[in-house]
Amino acid sequence: MIHLPETASTNSYLSDLLVQDPDLPAWTVVMTDNQTAGRGQQGNSWFASPGLNLTFSVLLRPTMVHAQQQFDLSRLCALSALHTLADILPSAEMLSIKWPNDIYYGDRKIAGILIEHSLTGSNLDYSILGVGLNINESDYPSYLPNPTSVRIILGHPVDRMEIFRSFVQEMRLFYRHIEEHTADRLHSRYMQCLYRRVGYHPFQDKEGRFDAMIADVLASGELLLVRADGRKSSYAFKEIAYILC
Length: 245
Fold this sequence. Notes:
InterPro entries: aa-tRNA-synth_II/BPL/LPL, Biotin_CoA_COase_ligase, BPL_LPL_catalytic. Residues 1-179 form the BPL/LPL catalytic domain. It is built from five helices and twelve strands. By secondary structure, it is α+β, with helices and mostly antiparallel strands. α2 (71-86) packs across α4 (160-179) and α2 crosses α5 (183-192). The termini are far apart.
């Protein structure tokens, strides 16, 4: 593992390493105590006070995965984070995956994931899985809408490196489904863990707000919604938003 006191982005650092050494082995990890320009989904920044949380990136080489199945890596990473947190938090049933791969405890975000892929032909060459886990943060800026952390939930600080080791162990277990071509099991478990999986909930697309039920998450990663009148629509990540309030 490469442990840096500070870096702009662990994903970017790992990507730069791959330019220098294209044969960098799978399961190389870059972790930092202070990520100064962490990135989230849709270009959002990732907030994490120095030394309190987990910000790291993992290199995988899932060359057996077709480009059209790359969302399996998102499922893998989200489930690894959820199962890791389920072992240490009370009321583990409150944990869920907010599509595509944020981890929620109740209605509050406790982890985020940013995945970047490189392709060779029609298959993946490598994947960089960037993970941010809110561990020992005790106070958040008011501009963040709904964050929480392990410390806030438990009421005391915890050993973040122990949580990191648990995460990697979970990821290795889930990765077997990729290697053994049983990723359909990842899909089943992912669907069971989806945030607001049951019932109708408010969403917003380019045409406005509407209520819908989650019907599925397709192999492409698109969210399939069904409205009360039976109409179905599928959305890529940036095409749809949850209405959280």
